[in-house]
Amino acid sequence: MSKMHITTSINGDTTEFLAEADQTLLSALRDNLRLTGTKEGCGSGDCGACSVRVDGRVVCSCLMLAPEAQDRAIETIEGMADGDNLHPVQRRFLEEAALQCGFCTPGFLIAARDLLDRNPNPTETEIRFWLAGNLCRCTGYDKIVRAVQKAAEDVRG
Amino acid sequence: MQYSAPETIESALKLLESDDDARVMAGGTDLIVQMTSGMRSPSHVVDIKRIPELCGVVQTADGGWKIGAAVPGAELNEHVELKRDWPGFVEATDLIGSMQVQGRATPVGNLCNASPAGDAVPGMVAAGATVTVAGSNGFRDVAAHDVPAAPGRTNLEKNEFVIAVNLPPKPPNSGDAYLRFIPRTEMDIAVVGTGVFLAFGESGHVREARIALGAIAPTVVFCTEAADALIGSRLEEEAIEAAVLAARNACNPIDDKRGTAEFRVHTVGVLIKRSIAIATQRAKRQVGMD
């Protein structure tokens, strides 16, 4: 099977890679490009660990084929911090202890930042609904919600 | 497997004709799961998201709506005018999966995946939707409820695919609603779903009604008997009970891990009443009746 040559933008950088037609974007990010911050949890779109933003919308990268990335703009967790400066969502997750094992955290951060980009003043209910596609088996979610609320305050300034 | 992303309907049709085992992909939230789990292994995936006319929501000259087959739920949910006209349909679509799934999943995909439990389906059937189907002989419009044939199978001809869902112009004094029962509060598959559309006449009687039932038969049930029980009434208790009875009689459910057949038949009645109440409230709010 001949591979497809894909040109895309990842975290603002033009990136080229070779992918099998039936490879998922998640697999291409992790296995071809070694961007392993994006995690594979369920592989069926239920857990949100593989969340990335594609042309401004958060999607599960396990539910997208790698060739679909052609000419799209992909944002992964690797592009969230600005050098050593963490995004407010990242900093608050640390300060509020919103993670234990950390496996779900990149997906939560991608989803939470997208929420705050759209709505810097979400209610607790809105936060819980927006993050309902991200599963965490450690924290019980309350600390995650608090971290997003604090990050929202930071974003509002 | 081959992957193609044609930019015209014609080239998509050619690709489908060239490979008997090709499969159309819109959002891919069902298809890719089926592929990775080994349920389906198409030899060719034809991605329709690069066809510009399939990627938009447009109001038609008569005031109806044409929703391209590649438009995901998130985009519908952000569309203020569409949501104002057909809130029940938009809410039904929005119930499918998480925010991540909404970024990809389309109501047309939900219809063509042909799960008996697809939430968008009773929503669009109650709204009176047709779909436009492209094929080698040109285009044809089909009632949405005629698309599913059986679980996982549609009535589309070989090499045909749906390019748009068409919602009619919303009549005055009308409203639609969709409710489903799930054992959790979020992110689950419907055990029962009911879509209701009601339009009222000037004197307050029901002028037009459509009722669609999901997850209680192999395919969506467009229940004209239940709708007929409401038409001409002023939603008196007897009329509503007659509609409930007709809807329950139209059920042909199975027992499964999500619910028993008996529970499904009972719940159809409960949800129909609640959906009628919401559709009525939406219809009357527009004209300040009540």
Automatic annotation (TrEMBL), chain A:
Pfam families: Fer2, Fer2_2. The lineage of its organism: Bacteria, Pseudomonadati, Pseudomonadota, Alphaproteobacteria, Hyphomicrobiales. Gene3D superfamilies: 3.10.20.30, [2Fe-2S]-binding domain (1.10.150.120). It comes from Hoeflea poritis. It comes from the Bacteria. The keyword Metal-binding applies. Residues 4-80 form the 2Fe-2S ferredoxin-type domain. This is (2Fe-2S)-binding protein. Keywords: 2Fe-2S, Iron, Iron-sulfur, Metal-binding, Oxidoreductase. The keyword Chloroplast does not apply. PANTHER family: OXIDOREDUCTASE WITH IRON-SULFUR SUBUNIT.
From TrEMBL, chain B:
Residues 1-172 form the FAD-binding PCMH-type domain. Keywords: FAD, Flavoprotein, Oxidoreductase. InterPro entries: CO_DH_flav_C, CO_DH_flav_C_dom_sf, Diverse_Substr_Oxidored, FAD-bd_PCMH, FAD-bd_PCMH-like_sf, FAD-bd_PCMH_sub1, FAD-bd_PCMH_sub2, Mopterin_DH_FAD-bd. Gene3D superfamilies: 3.30.465.10, CO dehydrogenase flavoprotein, C-terminal domain, Uridine Diphospho-n-acetylenolpyruvylglucosamine Reductase, domain 2. PROSITE patterns: FAD_PCMH (PS51387). The keyword Oxidoreductase applies. PANTHER family: XANTHINE DEHYDROGENASE SUBUNIT C-RELATED. This is Xanthine dehydrogenase family protein subunit M. It comes from Hoeflea poritis.
